[in-house]
Design goal:
Helix content: 25-40%
Shape: globular
Strand content: 15-25%
Largest sheet: 8 strands, mixed
Distance between the termini: 29 Å
Order of helices and strands: EEHEEEHEHEEHHEHEEEHEHEEH
Number of strands: 15
Number of helices: 9
Oligomer: single chain
């Protein structure tokens, strides 16, 4: 069932506003893990993907070589700081330094997934706030702007001493579920934890479904215990939407609970499919019929790929069109928030 769909953003103004500025002074580059996504963005904009090479030395050092002239140009770099997180962060910083030293006019970093976003506060003594540290590194690398999707905590925007455009994948999920609405039948949006209730409630209102909440207790970084469900899921198609699936402990335990409570079908969705550790095996074995993620993080479900075991359940939607439209608006000094007017109450 593995597919790559680019859902039309019904919340975006159409047709596109004609470009007020020429595109010949724009360059879009992509890191090693974002070439496919970068190409989809360029296809949306009708511009070629910039030429750059990342070379890895035997000792692990990285070298980014720009093959295109960027002097005086408006440049964008697309990299998700996912696994291997530290390597991708270094590639991002080196990309930024290369562009600055090559006299780029403006550098915008497009981070579909922002790594270290879960370390956003001191929840106990003698621990760092690494989300802020990474923001400081990006600022020190002299980036002009950051674009990201569904930050784990919205306050991370304030960690940057530069403009941040915080996008939401909610319209993409809404469009997808509306496209299969007839086959879903009676639905119930289930929030896997209390922190996600706002998003679940908004989606329930837009799709015309009920709402339920699961009370959970986190035992460790990989183990979650679900205790009870608040609301009724009996005989309904359950949709669980979250910002990320990491080890899949939370969502799989929640799926087992709603399955025992009489759910007819269970579909889970997340913007960022990290799918690390035992996640793929857990999801493949769980009573879940479909796992819907976006391409903010590469998900190789082909033969021999890391997600091969999940392929029959996996649906991957593309954020390329949305990011392309965001770049179009940034380039023309137009509003980004206008893209999310209908779903702004659901943003994290």
């Amino acid at each position: 069932m593995t597919v790559m769909e680019s859902m039309p953003m019904t919340n975006a103004p159409t047709p596109h506003t004609p470009s007020a500025r020429p595109w010949d002074d724009v360059k879009i580059f992509a890191g090693r893990n974002a070439r496919a996504l970068g190409q989809r963005m360029c296809d949306e904009l009708g511009v070629p993907l910039g030429n750059a090479k990342t070379h890895i030395f035997p000792d692990g050092e990285l070298l980014v070589k720009l093959e295109d002239d960027v002097r005086g140009r408006d440049c964008y770099v697309v990299i998700s700081t996912c696994f291997p997180v530290n390597d991708n962060i270094m590639e991002l910083l080196i990309f930024c330094d290369s562009l600055r030293r090559a006299s780029a006019k403006r550098v915008t970093l497009v981070l579909p997934y922002y790594g270290y976003g879960r370390q956003d506060r001191k929840d106990e003594g003698r621990v760092p706030i690494t989300a802020k540290l990474v923001a400081n590194l990006i600022t020190a690398a002299r980036a002009d702007r950051v674009v990201s999707i569904d930050l784990h905590a919205p306050q991370i925007q304030g960690f940057f001493d530069l403009p941040v455009d915080h996008l939401s994948a909610t319209p993409i999920f809404i469009d997808y579920f509306n496209s299969i609405r007839a086959e879903l039948g009676d639905i119930c949006l289930v929030s896997p934890d209390v922190g996600n209730v706002k998003v679940a409630e908004g989606v329930a209102n837009m799709l015309g479904g009920d709402l339920a909440v699961i009370h959970k207790q986190r035992i460790s970084g990989e183990e979650v215990q679900t205790e009870r469900i608040i609301g009724s899921v009996e005989g309904k198609t359950v949709l669980m939407i979250d910002d990320m699936i990491s080890t899949a402990g939370t969502v799989c335990e929640a799926a087992k609970l709603v399955h025992r409570s009489g759910a007819k079908d269970i579909i889970v969705a997340a913007t960022h499919g990290l799918l690390v550790g035992p996640a793929v095996e857990r999801l493949a074995a769980a009573p879940i019929s479909r796992v819907v993620v976006t391409d903010t993080i590469p998900c190789d479900a082909g033969p021999g790929g890391r997600c091969e075991a999940l392929a029959p359940k996996l649906v991957q939607l593309s954020v390329g069109q949305m990011l392309g439209e965001a770049i179009r608006r940034i380039h023309n000094d137009q509003s980004i928030s206008a893209l999310f007017r209908k779903v702004k109450s659901m943003k994290r």
